[in-house]
Design goal:
Elements lengths: L2 H8 L1 E5 L8 H6 L3 E6 L2 H27 L12
Antiparallel strand pairs: 1-2
Length: 80
């Protein structure tokens, strides 16, 4: 799933006018209505990504000191 697809899933649009065409903006316009965005998915998606980033930052801040303390020979690839 891409960020654009996630944003579209979190967005909510409505068709104004006499016809209710659901979440299809193209069909709404053809039916004589106007598509109105009631809730944009950008802000919930951004909030979720900030939470995930904070968790990853916290997780890696615990792991990195252990990795930095390892001797250099453990970082090298072994030739078989």
């Amino acid at each position: 799933m891409t960020a654009t697809e996630a944003e579209q899933m979190l967005s909510h649009i409505a068709c104004t006018g006499n016809r209710n065409e659901g979440n299809n903006a193209h069909a709404c316009g053809e039916a004589g209505g106007q598509c109105v965005t009631l809730r944009d998915g950008f802000y919930p998606l951004s909030f979720g990504m900030i939470i995930i980033g904070a968790f990853l930052g916290w997780h890696f801040s615990r792991i990195l000191p252990e990795l930095e303390a390892m001797p250099i020979h453990k970082w090298r690839a072994k030739v078989k």
